[in-house]
Each structure stands twice: as structure tokens, then as C-alpha cells.
Amino acid sequence: MMKNNYYIILKMLFLSFCFAAIDAITEDGQKVILHNDGTWKFENPAESAKFNLIEFVDSHFEKHEKHYGRDNKPFEAHVRGFFQFQNNSDKKVVAIKYKFSLIDAFDETLYESIVKDNIIIDPGERNELDTYYYWEDTFENNDIYDKIIGPVSSKNLKVKIKIITIVFDNGTKVKYN
């Protein structure tokens, strides 16, 4: 009888460890709680409230050859990069500050930049892909263009975006760590 009680106690103890939530830390230092069903939540409720207000949804890259007939820039060979964001909030976004990294097929960072983008996105909408960043061939050895033209040509260039600050039309600013 005593042996069965130990067995039941050990089994209950084992099951409690199997179903316990796990505390973890994200890449950017935020504390989260992981659950066995695959869900998670921020430990700090304030972080949950601002999570996913703006979401990076798409990027598109184009390569352009030198244009001899154009008087205005860009006329040299260049790459254009278009980024698209989704506004998941109930307020109009008027600006986003973010860091983007251009990543090759080997997951190596080729270029990074912090951008302050005066972009207007209505609630529940995506921005138009009508503005772009471009990197021109400067003919200097190993310039940004040289680093990214191969991955752009093979359609292997990826983008990693980290939102830093969101500005809404009412003046509210949401800052991320």
C-alpha cells in the first residue's frame, strides 16, 4: 500500500512538471511564458498590449540596369527595395522608425539601416508599395550594390525588420525595446 502511494505521488509530481509553463526570454530581451499547447504570452501585460500593432508583411526587390537617356537620378544601375507593413491597430499610423537588415541565402547580414519613415497607414490597412529605397552601383569595390545584386538577381534576398517606434495621428508614440 505504501509503495502505491509513492508511485502515485511520483506520477503526480512528474505530470506537474510536464504541464508547467516555461519562462523564456526573446532575442530582444522580453520575458515570455511558453505553454505546452504552443501558445505564449508576454510576462508584462503592457508588452502584450503593444505587440503586433504594426506588422512587416512583405518586401519586393527589383534590379535596374543603367539608363543612359535619363537626366535625373536614379540613372545608374541600382536595386530598388519596397517594404510593406500592416496596421493592426484601431488608429492611423503616420510614422514608423524601424531597423531593417538585408539577409542572404546563408542567413548572413549584408546591410543594416535604421529608418524613420513618414508613412501613413489607415487602421486595418497596408501601405502602398509606391515608395522605395535604392542602392546604386557606385563602382567602388564591395559597395552595398555589389553585396546585394547577386541575392536580388537570384530572388534570395530576405529582409528582417525590427520595429523601434510607431507614431499615431493623435500624437501617441509606442516605443519598443
Question: What are the defining features of this structure?
Answer:
single chain, 177 residues, alpha+beta, three-stranded antiparallel beta sheet
Briefly note the structural class of the backbone: alpha+beta
Number of strands: 10
What is the ordering of alpha helices and beta strands? HEEEHEEEEEHEE
User: Helicity level, as a percent range?
Assistant: 10-25%
Report the principal-axis shape: globular
Beta-strand residue percentage: 35-45%
Largest sheet features: 4 strands, antiparallel
C-alpha termini separation: 56 Å
Rg calculated over all Cα atoms: 24 Å
User: How is the largest sheet built, in terms of strand order?
Assistant: 7-6-9-10
Query: Unreliable stretches, pLDDT < 50, 5 or more residues?
Result: none
Please provide a brief summary of the model.
The chain has three helices and ten strands; from the N terminus they run H-E-E-E-H-E-E-E-E-E-H-E-E.
List the helices and strands and how they pair.
Layout: H1 2-18, E1 22-25, E2 31-34, E3 40-42, H2 45-50, E4 54-64, E5 78-87, E6 93-103, E7 109-117, E8 133-136, H3 144-153, E9 158-168, E10 173-175
Antiparallel strand pairs: 1-2, 2-3, 4-5, 5-8, 6-7, 6-9, 9-10
